[in-house]
Specification:
Layout (H helix, E strand, L loop, with lengths): L1 E3 L10 E7 L4 H16 L4 E6 L4 H6 L7 E6 L2 E7 L5 H12 L1
Parallel strand pairs: 1-3, 2-3
Antiparallel strand pairs: 2-4, 4-5
Length: 101
């Protein structure tokens, strides 16, 4: 399941993938094509889409330097990160690892 971050969201519990992107970014649009699939394949993991231009405090908190960036969280703690994602296969391992925790 993918949800759009709106500022009123608890990031400190459960299994989550924070997906940082910006509108108009070509690599971000590539990622958008398969993030919905991953959200459906791993329903116990909540994918949180974050517009990096709009939510600067989260960009700073998680030290996001480029987009797209995926940050894997379990109970609010970062357990992994992937930058400059281009293909679904690049992130399947991390989704499976997070699923197993």
């Amino acid at each position: 399941m993918i949800v759009e971050y709106d500022g009123n969201f608890d990031l400190d519990s459960g299994k989550r993938v924070l997906w940082f992107s910006i509108p108009g970014c070509p690599p971000c649009r590539i990622v958008e094509g398969f993030m919905g699939e991953l959200g459906n394949e791993f329903p116990e993991i909540q994918v949180v889409h974050i517009n990096a231009e709009k939510w600067n405090e989260l960009v700073g908190r998680f030290e996001v330097l480029n987009v797209p960036t995926l940050i894997y969280l379990k109970d609010g703690k970062e357990i992994g990160r992937r930058n400059l994602v281009r293909r679904k296969e690049e992130v399947l391992v991390e989704f499976r690892e997070l699923e197993g925790l």
